[in-house]
Amino acid sequence: MPSTVEITIPNSTLVEGYTKYNITIRLPLRSYVVQKRYSEFASFHDSLSHQVGAQPPVPLPKKSWFSNTNSNERLREERRQGLEKYLQAINNTEDQRWRNTSIWRSFLNLPSQSISVDNSSSTRLHKAITVPGSVGSAPIIDPVLWLDCHRELKTHLHDARLHLTRRDQATSPQKQHESSAHAKSSLTKAGTMILALEGGLKDPGNDAWVGSGLGEGEIRRRKDLLASAKKEKDGLENLHSAMMQKSKLDAAVASIQDKDKLIGSAKPRVGRVLGKETDKTRELDNQGVLQLQKQTMENQDKSVDELMKIITRQRELGVAINNELEIQNELLKLTDEDTERLERKIEIGKKRVGKIS
Question: Which stretches does UniProt call biased (Basic and acidic residues) (predicted)?
């Protein structure tokens, strides 16, 4: 069964007098480059053949004893092509014996479970992204693919936020609906990936986690990353729900306005509008009611005038009382002064009596 990994050697690099071949490896969610010398290829070939007990499908390009790839560009290009065919033959063959070895994974820095299409974490991760709710949303237990999935999760959240912003700025119902659908799709994929990531962190004692050498601190950091992503997703879902409710309300208001335009609003009534009738107004016509209103207002004006007179009289009384109080205060001051003079005279008299005795 062919591998899901794509391997190419697009170019080579001269480094300190020897040639390094740049091996580009593309996984379902990420790509990276591994640099290897020809001598490393030769050691890898010998170890792989010894471990499997059979030669790879394509032989390794032979070593040149009379020419150097550093100075011979044609030889360097031929060797690059030969090494690329060598790796691609192992990677694409139906026979998985060479790909299932630890030597192959170590040479290309492949994740520990990136070989089998049906059982690999990369395949499950790819399904979790492309087919939400499928069996591919099983827990992601490979540490490297976990980070890849988290990066993809952040991408989906970013896309959801972008689509919600576009929906808010859209001017037509069709564009609003399209942006809303894209945002909902991104949030659904993000939710599926969160479940897969969360499931992987629930079993940190798995062989993949233990073999990766991740400490408790790194696992806690990943849990914090996941908690932050969940909080962001919940916020975006609440924002999406609020936008949908607002759209429904706007649609309802618009339908009422359209109905009013279609039917036409009621014309205002012309003439006298009767309210609560009294014994005085029940037998009167409009002119009589107007005359009664004028008479009532005149009576109110007279009452206000009478009230004004009373208030004026009260004010005059207040002023008179104030004047009387001022006079009484002056009299009290004079009394206090007389009392003080009398007290001084008494003191003088006591002193004289004391001297005589």
Answer: 167-181
Residues 125, 102, single domain; the answer is: no
Helices and strands in the chain: count of H runs, count of E runs: 9, 3
Host domain of residue 215: 121-261
Angstrom distance (rounded) from CA 117 to CA 339: 119
Tokens matching residue 313: 């009289």
Model pLDDT for residues 116-134, shown as the tens digit of each residue? 433 444 455 555 455 444 4
Contact 139, 200 (CB under 8 A): yes
Taking the model in full, what pTM does it have?
0.40
Residue 68's CATH number: 3.30.1520.10
Q: Is residue 203 very low, low, confident or very high in pLDDT (cuts 50, 70, 90)?
A: low
Q: What is the pLDDT of residue 207?
A: 52
CB atoms within 10 A of CB 187: 22
Q: Is 104 in the same domain as 126?
A: no
**pLDDT for 263-315, tens place per residue?**
655 555 545 555 566 777 777 778 888 888 888 899 999 999 999 999 999 99
Classify the C-alpha dihedral 210-213-217-223 as positive or negative: negative
One domain for residues 32 and 145 = no
In this structure, is residue 282 part of a structural domain?
no
Query: How large is the greatest C-alpha to C-alpha distance in the chain, in angstroms?
Result: 153
List the one residue out of 201, 195, 241 whose CA is nearest residue 218: 201
User: How many whole angstroms separate alpha carbon 176 and alpha carbon 188?
Assistant: 18
Task: Inform me whether the pLDDT recorded for 260 exceeds 50.
Answer: yes
First-to-final CA distance of the chain: 143
Q: Which two tokens stand for residue 120?
A: 């690999």
| Tens of pLDDT, residues 133-154 | 443 456 777 777 778 788 888 8
Among 76, 108, 140, which residue terminates a domain? 108
Q: For all residues of the chain together, what is the average pLDDT?
A: 80
Quote the CA–CA distance of 169 and 196 in Å, as a whole number: 33
Name which of 69, 81, 73 is nearest 19 in CA terms.
Answer: 69
